[in-house]
Amino acid sequence: MTINIDDMAAFCKRKGFIYPTAEIYGGLAGFFDYGPYGADMKKNIKQNWWKTFVQSREDIVGIDGSIITNPKVWEASGHVGCFADIMVACSNDKCRNKVRADQFIEENLNFPADGVKAETINAIFAENKLVCPKCKSKFLPAKDFNLMFSTQVGPEEEKENTAYLRPETAQLIFTNFKLVVENARMKLPFGIAQIGKAFRNEISPRGFLFRCREFEQMEIEYFVHPDAYDKCPYIDEALDYEVQYIDAKMQEKEGENEPEKKASMKELLEKGIIKTQWHAYWLAISNKWFTDLGANPDNLRIRQHIATEKSHYALDTWDFEYNFPFGWKELTGIANRTDFDLKQHIEHSKQDLSLYDEESKKKIIPHVIAEPSFGVDRVFLVLMFDAYEDDKKRGNIVLKLDPKIAPVKVGVFPLVNKLNDDARKIYLMLKDNLVVQYDKSGSVGRRYARADEIGIPYCITVDFESRDDNCVTVRDRDTTKQIRVKIDDLRDTISKLLNKEIDFEKAGRLVEEKKKA
């Protein structure tokens, strides 16, 4: 990673990945539009996640819930009453700058303040003489700021017609729990997944895609029998998996964390650092999913929430964190929510959401042992950072995206315009099965550079020799090596390369350096 967050935002805009929303009107803080390459890459991330965690598993099914639902859902979940961040505002009437208090403390004093109450926040600000960064005036006393976006349902703007844009995707998994169990015939342990938009009226959105007011989540609620917390049938898949970690004890010294350590899930379980097999399992396979998509494991760690951070419902929570240019920040959270949510909805709806346990012949309320919650936009940002390389030798940016998420899989180029018809045949042959880009503008070298900058893994060049030997040149983005491949074998060869089923140099006849197109 060689660039800061502002440089990445500029690169994404310049190359058609992300735009500030409605920029011609000055934009709107915390909202972004995905451009042609960003939209495809985002869809690829979501499709890969859905395939990995839903379609390839027998124990997880998915739903697609409504963005606006009955407001009683959010009263039961506690969002209406206590879904808030602590805000401080500048006392200068001409300035009135507002900041999120816990983030301001973390940035200026270098210790976590998530979950700290307003009274303590005020004391910290006073003791450390924290002032407005814009005008250097004092801040007014801290106060809660509810993050829910409200709206009106129906033609009359009345209090009873107030509804909310959902601040998370989890709750409709719980309200639909009984129906999903019956329709999909699920047996414990099992999970319910959802991908969808969520909205939070952030006090001070910042960090490009890192903190937005509109974002997308990929989330699983994984349910287990309340007496089977430590009976994960898949734990053997995770025991040898190594991660960088920081536990709660390593964060006890205010303002200074111990450096992260490395250990296997087996070690963390044996030492009691991770409390359940299920939590270890989900931490391991979630970490693996990130690295399989191209995230650098050296930039990833898991961090245990300290007591003041944990949500009111959580027995234990771990965050995946990524080493952004602005420091280690949360990428995704995995919480043990126990039976809090189902009990809340049972109490408020007066409906029975329990399951009948055949073994004990009693009704039970399943527990959410883990809640792997991924922010699509943050995943996108991480993969862009770890793919970005400023290649001085080539003189251009190379975006080394994993083929699974690359927005365009193959580029097709005619060496010169006289070969357009020949190259178009190759393009038409591939386009129904792959996302292919046809480019005939400028020199081949310039076309390679354009392809590198949007992350196209392989480029195919049709030259005059192609008419004689019925072969084309295939160039690898990451190494710039080239091979000659028979046109009749091209579709199969490209497919194997994209799926990493064959090494590049074994996929065709290697082209000598001096003969490269």
Highlighted features:
9-stranded mixed sheet; alpha+beta; 517 residues; 6-stranded mixed sheet; 26% strand
Instruction: Give start-end ranges of low-pLDDT stretches.
Output: none
Shape: globular
The biggest beta sheet reads: 9 strands, mixed
Backbone CA Rg: 26 Å
Q: Helix segment count?
A: 16
The helicity comes to 25-40%
Q: Residue-averaged pLDDT, rounded? A: 92
Tell me the distance between the termini: 30 Å
Care to count the β-strands?
26
* Strand order in the largest sheet: 3-9-10-18-15-14-13-11-12
Structure class: alpha+beta
Beta-strand content: 25-35%
Task: Summarize the model shown.
The chain has 517 residues and is of the alpha+beta class. The chain is built from 16 helices and 26 strands. It starts with a helix and ends in a 7-residue tail after the last strand.
What do you see in this structure?
This protein is 29% helix and 26% strand. It has 16 helices and 26 strands. Helix 2 packs across helix 12.
Layout of strands and helices, then pairs:
Elements: H1 5-14, E1 18-20, E2 32-34, H2 36-55, E3 60-63, H3 72-77, H4 79-82, E4 84-89, E5 98-100, H5 101-109, H6 118-127, E6 143-146, E7 149-152, E8 162-165, H7 171-175, H8 177-184, E9 190-199, E10 214-224, E11 242-246, E12 261-264, H9 265-270, H10 277-292, E13 300-304, E14 316-324, E15 327-336, H11 340-349, E16 355-357, E17 362-364, E18 367-375, H12 376-387, E19 388-391, E20 396-399, E21 410-414, H13 420-430, E22 436-438, H14 444-453, E23 458-462, H15 465-469, E24 471-476, E25 482-486, H16 490-498, E26 509-510
Parallel strand pairs: 3-9, 11-13, 21-22, 21-23
Antiparallel strand pairs: 1-2, 4-5, 4-6, 7-8, 9-10, 10-18, 11-12, 13-14, 14-15, 15-18, 16-17, 19-20, 23-24, 24-25, 25-26
